[in-house]
Amino acid sequence: MREFETIAAISTSLGESGVSIIKISGEEAKAIVARIFVQKNGRSFLEAKPWYMNYGHIINPATGEHVDEVLVSYFQGPKSFTAEDVVEINCHGGRVATESVLNQVFLAGARPAEPGEFTKRAFLNGRIDLSQAEAVIDIIQSKTELAMKSAMEQSEGRLSREIADIRSRLLHVLAYIEVTVDFPEEDLEFTTGQEVSEKLGALMDHVKSLLSSAEEGKIIREGLNLAIIGKPNVGKSSLLNALLMENRAIVTDIPGTTRDIIEEYLNIEGIPVKITDTAGIRETQDVVEKIGVDRSKGKIQEADLIVFVLDRSRPLEKEDYDIIEYIGNRKSITLLNKTDLEDKLELEKLPLGEVIAVSALNGYGIGELKKRIKDLFFHGSLEIRDVLVTNRRHKEALMRALEKMQDAKNAVDAGISLDLAAIDISAAWNYFGEITGDTLSEDLVDKIFSDFCIGK
Ligand code: GDP
User: Is 253 annotated in some ligand binding site?
Assistant: First the structure.
């Protein structure tokens, strides 16, 4: 195991709460806490048994003064989160109590942990691989139960096992090629080529099936980006509110006042849907509104799905047509809002795809809308078992690996020397290793962990 400095951080969130947990990890963890922890039973913490709670006080060793009343546990490495010695101090919650205790931990010799550093150590110490480490952050950031389940599976190593299996099969293929190249006989080279091609083909099918769930996986993990667009006053804010069932967005009668883009998450049958309510897209001279419109256009480009709102109680205007043109053939649903009012829309003039009649005001059609949103992205019932790839980084590595395997297969099929195919196969093997972190550069590993929160 590699040796690192002993680090400490608050692992719970810093609000008013009953308890906060301070985590300390590293060789010195126990010794550091022993300097500032006075146990009720009079024993030194240096003698503390692992996996027990110990009651006492954190003191300021300079003055002997009590800082807080605490419960402290010791997790002996390698059976700990980081695989190092870990001490956890349960102190009183709230910023002041927690930071006072943490401060004593620092004075006693620990240094502040960087974001994600505890998880990074678990990775560097070989307790978990990179995809499992990434799953830890996904668990914390899960927006729906489904997202959490999928992250749990990943943290338990389901994807890692698949990748390890594929890599070992690739190594087999490489070894096979090596033997042939070492004993070059024409016949052998030919039969080996055929076998290599078959094996690569089967592996590629497997990788493709992993990738086939990646789109759904991305949506489960990051949420579906949904942009609500339409000219002013058609009912976009009202629709957002109807979807959220609470009044978080500002609803207004004055055209053009929903200037800011408001983002909210909605849980549609387990799918986290990120809703963007935009200022209407329209030609405008108003500078403030112009910014809103430009941002709306950007949001629309990023959206997975556009919900275009029309006011059924008013005839169509140029603005509506402009928006339709702007949507083009992007994935969209058109809502005919205000169905509770008299119908003044001449629909036959519109080249519309999917149309749903709704009333944002009384909730009519909102259930239908939610159902259609889900059906557009997920076919049938959503089974988390089938979704293994949720992370964009993993998806990209898989795609690159697949490309290299295809290159290798093409070379073999074309009868080009097996040596060349072997180069592509090793490249693919490396790409798979990036997922689990076996072949990823230290810089990239650092970058991944720097996105974590402190104390994890
Ligand atoms: P936005 O500018 O597109 O965001 O539109 P708002 O949501 O602010 O709505 C504009 C006005 O239309 C408000 O007075 C809403 O109460 C009203 N409105 C929105 N949806 C409906 C609806 O379904 N029926 C009726 N009658 N009025 C609605």
Answer: yes
68 touches 58 (CB < 8 A): yes
Q: Is the CB of 361 under 6 A from ligand 1?
A: yes
234: in domain: yes
Q: What is the DSSP letter of 280?
A: P
CA separation for the pair 108, 28 (Å, rounded): 10
Ligand 1 atom with the shortest distance to the CA of 362: 23
| Ligand 1 atom closest to residue 252's alpha carbon, by position in its atom list | 8
CATH number of the domain that residue 313 is part of: 3.40.50.300
Specify if 303 maps to a domain. Answer: yes
Q: Is 279 annotated as a binding residue?
A: yes
- What CATH number does the domain containing 400 carry? 1.20.120.430
pLDDT tens digits in sequence order for the chain, 456 residues long: 456 899 999 999 877 889 999 999 999 999 999 999 999 999 999 999 999 999 999 999 999 999 999 999 999 999 999 999 999 999 999 999 999 999 999 999 999 999 899 999 999 999 999 999 999 888 888 878 888 888 888 898 989 999 999 999 999 999 988 887 777 666 666 677 889 999 999 999 999 988 988 878 888 888 888 888 888 899 988 888 888 764 444 444 445 554 455 556 777 777 788 877 655 445 555 555 555 556 666 667 888 889 999 999 998 888 888 888 888 888 899 999 999 988 887 766 666 678 899 999 999 999 899 888 888 877 655 555 566 788 889 999 999 999 999 999 999 999 888 888 999 999 999 999 999 999 888 888 888 888 777 778
Residue 354 lies in a domain: yes
Are residues 161 and 72 part of one domain? no
Domain that holds residue 32: 2-113
d(CA 35, CA 143): 41
Question: Is 229 close to ligand 1, i.e. is its CB under 6 Å away?
Answer: no
Ligand 1 center from residue 376 Cα (angstroms): 26
- Strands (DSSP E) found in 320-381: 332-337, 354-357
Whether residue 341 has its Cβ less than 6 Å from ligand 1: yes
- In this structure, are residues 418 and 174 in contact, taking their beta carbons and an 8 Å threshold? no
Is 233 marked as a binding-site residue? Answer: yes
Residue 420 belongs to a domain: yes
Q: Which two tokens stand for residue 122?
A: 């678990």
Do 141 and 66 reside in the same domain of the chain?
A: no
